[in-house]
Automatic annotation (TrEMBL):
<feature type="transmembrane region" description="Helical">
    <location>
        <begin position="44"/>
        <end position="62"/>
    </location>
</feature>
<keyword id="KW-0812">Transmembrane</keyword>
<keyword id="KW-1133">Transmembrane helix</keyword>
<dbReference type="GO" id="GO:0005886">
    <property type="term" value="C:plasma membrane"/>
</dbReference>
<comment type="similarity">
    <text>Belongs to the UPF0382 family.</text>
</comment>
<protein>
    <submittedName>
        <fullName>DUF423 domain-containing protein</fullName>
    </submittedName>
</protein>
<dbReference type="InterPro" id="IPR006696">
    <property type="entry name" value="DUF423"/>
</dbReference>
<dbReference type="Pfam" id="PF04241">
    <property type="entry name" value="DUF423"/>
</dbReference>
<feature type="transmembrane region" description="Helical">
    <location>
        <begin position="74"/>
        <end position="94"/>
    </location>
</feature>
<feature type="transmembrane region" description="Helical">
    <location>
        <begin position="100"/>
        <end position="120"/>
    </location>
</feature>
<keyword id="KW-0472">Membrane</keyword>
Amino acid sequence: MKQASLFIAAIGGFTGVALGAFGAHGLKNSLAPAQLAVFQTGVQYQLLHSLALLGLAVLLRQHDSSLFRWTGRCFVVGTVLFSGSLYLLALSGIRPLGMITPLGGVALLAGWFCLALGAWREGHAPAA
């Protein structure tokens, strides 16, 4: 997962920037403002979690724990489901696609929970 996290973070960052530019320039005249906002939310979450995955790749080089590896898996699945469903929803207008978005959100939350739990177990949490 160490090498995969770095690679996926790079691809996620690259495609996030490309999709952001596409949304800002290529879609601004063809989508309604509400649809464009949905698309941009997908871009924001994709870029945020690409950066988080980049940080995780660095962390995994020092602390290769199963919880940190699960963090990466959850971030990848969550980003694909959350951002991907928002992209499809904005571009197609198919409302039932919006039912996939919360599943992605739960996966992202699970990733952050795994990261916190892993930090706690590895002794990286602040002392109380």
